[in-house]
Amino acid sequence: MSRVRRSAKLRYGDKELAIQQRLRALDTFRGMAIVFMIFVNDGAGGYWWLEHATWNGLAAGDLVFPAFLWIMGVCVPLSVKSAFAKGVPRWKIVFHIIRRSIMMFLLGISLNTIYGSNMLGELRIFGVLQRLAVAYLVSAGFYALTAPKYYTPPRGACGQALKDVLSCAWCWVLAGVLIAAHSAITFIIHDPDCPAGYLGPGGKHDEWVAPECSGGAAGYIDRLLLGESHLFQHSDARNVYGGPVTDPEGLLGCLTSAVQALLGVQAGATVLLQRSHKARVSRWLAWALVFALAGALLAGFSREHGVVPINKNLWSMSFVLVTSAVSLTILSICYTFTDAWRVWDGGPFRAPGLNAIALYIGHSVCAHLFPFHWRVPFMRTHAIRLIEAVWGTALWVIIAHIMAKKKVFITL
After folding, report:
1. Contacting residues for 298 by C-beta, under 8 A, at least 6 apart
2. For the chain, which terminal residue's Cβ has fewer other Cβ atoms within 10 angstroms, N or C?
3. Stretch 305-321: mean pLDDT
C-alpha cells in the first residue's frame, strides 16, 4: 500500500507474490489433471465414457488434456509478475519461455517414438507435449511482451470490477485474431475434391459422403504440410471410419489451443488483481457460465448438428469453451476448499501437481514396464482392466509424494 500511495501504481512486490503463489488450488488442479490423464492413458478400465469420444461429442477423458493446457495458462501471469518483481528483464523472461517451449517440443517428439516409428522419415512431429509447447509459447510469450510491469487500476466502480479483464486487453485481442484465423481457415480452405467447411472424419462416416476428406481443413493442412507419414497413424476415428490419416494434435488446432491457454491467462489475472475469495470465485463461475453457454450455442445444444460441434480431434472452439467452463468450475471448487475454507490440503493430488511434467514423461516411458503395467490371461473384463489402470496410476501418485517429501521438483 505504501508503494501505491507513493506512485499511484500497483507494484507486484515479492511479499504480495509470495502470498499469491501459495495457492494450493493451482497445484491441486494440476495434480488432478495429470493423475486422471495417466489413468485415461492406462486404459481407464475400458469404460467408453472414461476414454475419448471417437469424433464429435465429449467424454470424461476429453476433459483432461484441455484442463492441463488451461491451468498452464493460469500460472503464466503469476510467474511473469514474479519475475518482474525480482527485477528480471523482459527479454530474459521471453528467452526463458522460448527455451522452455523448444525443450518441451523436442521431448514430445522423443516420446512419440515409444508408440510410433523412430525412422526419421516416419517420425510423428506433433503430439501432446508439442501442443502444450506451442500454446505456452504463444500465450506466455505474448503476455510477457505486453503485460505492464506496473499496473494502474482504473478509477470508478466499473473499472475496479473489470480491472482483471482490462489488464489482459491485449490477450483478448490476440484471442480474437486467432479465433478469426481458425474460423476462416476451417470454413474456406479445403481439399479440391472435398466440400468447404467439412468437419467430419471422412471414410464411411455418413454413408461415405466425403471418404477422402478426413478432418476437413485441419486434416488437409496436416497432410499437405507435414506429410501423412509424420502424422498419428492409429487414431480412434480412423480405426472406426477409415479414410485418410488425421492427427488429433495437428497444426490448425494449435490456434484454438493457444486461445484456451489465453483464457487461462485471464483466470490467472483474476488471482493477481482480485483480492477476496468471493471476488475470485464469483468471477470464475461467471466466466464458466458464459463459456458453457457460448460453447453450447456453437454446438447447437447437440452432438452432431451444430455449426461448430464439440470435437477434441479438431480442437473446435465449442470444445475450447465448454472444457474451459468445466476447468473454471473445478478450479473454483478446489480453491474454495483448499484456500478459502482451508478444509482440504489438496491431497492426494497436490504432490503430483508439483511434478506434473516428470510424471507425464515417466508414465510414458514406463508404458509397458512392470510393475506399472501387467497382464493376466483374462484381461477382457472391465474389473481386471480397471484394477490394472488404478494400480499403475496409484504407483505414480506414490512416486510423486516421495519426490515431494524429498523436495525433488523437476521442471523445464
Report:
1. 306, 307, 308, 316, 317, 318, 321
2. N
3. 94
Distances (CA, A) of 246 to 133, 214, 231, 234, 365: 20, 7, 7, 9, 24
d(CA 180, CA 202): 25
Closest of 328, 256, 255, 254 to residue 291, by C-alpha:
328
Tell which residue, 1, 84, 12, has the closest CA to residue 273: 12
Which residues lie closer than 8 Å to 342 by C-beta, 6 or more apart? none
Report pLDDT for 91: 93
User: Which cell goes with 383?
Assistant: 474389473
* Nearest-angstrom CA–CA distance, 106 and 121: 16
User: Interhelix angle for 24-41 vs 356-365, to 10°?
Assistant: 10
From 52, 182, 205, 363, active-site residue? 52
Angle between helices 253-273 and 128-146 (to 10 degrees): 50
The type of residue at 176 is G
Phi and psi (nearest 5°) for 252? -65, -35
**Residue linked to cell 488432478:** 32
| φ and ψ at residue 23, rounded to 5 degrees | -65, 120
Q: Which residue matches cell numbers 510469450?
A: 141
Q: Verify whether residue 52 is a known catalytic residue.
A: yes
Alpha carbons 194 and 248: distance in angstroms, whole number: 20
| 143, three cell numbers | 503476455
- Number of Cβ within 10 Å of residue 7's Cβ equals 11
Chain centroid to CA 215: 21
DSSP character string of 100-160: HHHHHHHHHHHHHHHHS---GGG-----HHHHHHHHHHHHHHHHHHHS-SEE-PPSSHHHH
